[in-house]
Amino acid sequence: MQLWTQIVCEIGFRKLNAFFSLLGLTLAVIIVVASQLIAESDERETRRVTRDMGFNLRLIPAETDLGQFYRDGFSQFAMDVTTLDRLATQLTNNVSFNHLVGSLRRGYTVNGQSVLLVGLSKTYVAPGQGKKPMGFVIKTNTIHIGSEISRFHGKNKGDTMQVGMQKFKVSNDPIETGTSDDITIFARLEDVQSILGLTGKINEIEAIDCLCLTADEDPLTILRKEIGDILPDVQVVHKQKLADARAKQRQTREKVNAVVLPSVLLASAVWVALLAVFNVRDRRQEIGVLRALGKSGWCIAGLFLGKAVLLGFVAAVFGVVFGMWTVLEFGPSLFPVTKKAIQINHLLVFQLLFATPFFAAFSSFIPAMLAVSHDPAETLRED
Question: Rounded to an integer, what distance in angstroms lies between the CA atom of residue 324 and that of residue 313?
């Protein structure tokens, strides 16, 4: 009788043992699939939510007085826009910052109301990352206005508003934020430069700190050294509370993953190994007969390991299908911001289809070796 035929007959004869082995392996695969996809989704969600909280890194001219900067919310000094270009050319996956946006910020008066006028450049990201711009995209001849500006001037989305000598279309529905954004007019960098007569100038570069280190790990020293080597003529201001929230969230997720996956794999390995031990114990008489009939130890071990491999493959198929379906079905409700990014991980599917049979065979290896180590004469004598 061929090996695989014997294995199928063995599974059919000892259905309960095979069922519990298959159940344990399938549950392990489901948990691995679900935890991996959830971890990926959680990371995306965390990045997006913390990203949308705003930039946590501000680069301003070196001569800026920080007291004035914190009081007014912008530097009174300006720097050439080529400063932004110099920093953008250094963007790679190896630097500690990303999402660069140059801005020109000044206090301004529009029809008797003091406002903060902000011109924003396009977003620069590291090549090949395909990251979307932060915040909103400002189109030509449009502006975004704050709620207080809307109330003072009676302007809403679609209305025309004059700023300086230029007329713009309001492109947003102003919403009260409780921040300085309520008295801010956002426009394209080139338009604000023209209004203020500061062509080719900016006074701030905003970015995101990608180190994800908490304050006690001193990320500011690293950032100042890295950015200072490129732009020695800027000051680096770090929004530490915002950076801490981002770092702690990501570190917590990584710690959970570091505990969950090994625990699942260990529990599954113990489960499969114990079932294999019980199977060996129940089949001692059969093993003794097979050895007495001249079957080699490796042939008998192959029965146990082959059974584990077959069950492992079937468990991988069931586990991958059910695990993927579960995450695709319920994931969007857990991660509403990045729900469109939740999709099948084909690499993970391939890895599990290969790794699960190997893992099952590894878990059954010691019981299989115990099975062939018994002297057939002693085993039959006991019976």
Answer: 16
The DSSP line for 203-268 is SEEEEEE-S---GGG-HHHHHHHHHHHH-TTEEEEE-HHHHHHHHHHHHHHHHHHHHHHHHHHHHH
CB hemisphere CA count around 45 (13 angstroms) = 19
Distance of alpha carbon 35 from alpha carbon 323, whole angstroms: 9
Distance CA 25, CA 179 (A): 53
d(CA 300, CA 112): 93
Q: Is the pTM of this model over 0.70?
A: no
Report the SS3 class of residue 368: helix
Mean pLDDT of the region 282-307: 61
> Tens digits of per-residue pLDDT, 204-241?
999 887 776 666 667 778 888 888 888 998 999 887 66
**CA distance linking residue 299 with residue 64, whole number of Å:** 80
How many residues are recorded in the chain?
A: 383
More confident residue, 102 or 297: 102
Question: Closest by alpha carbon to 40, among 243, 330, 339?
Answer: 339
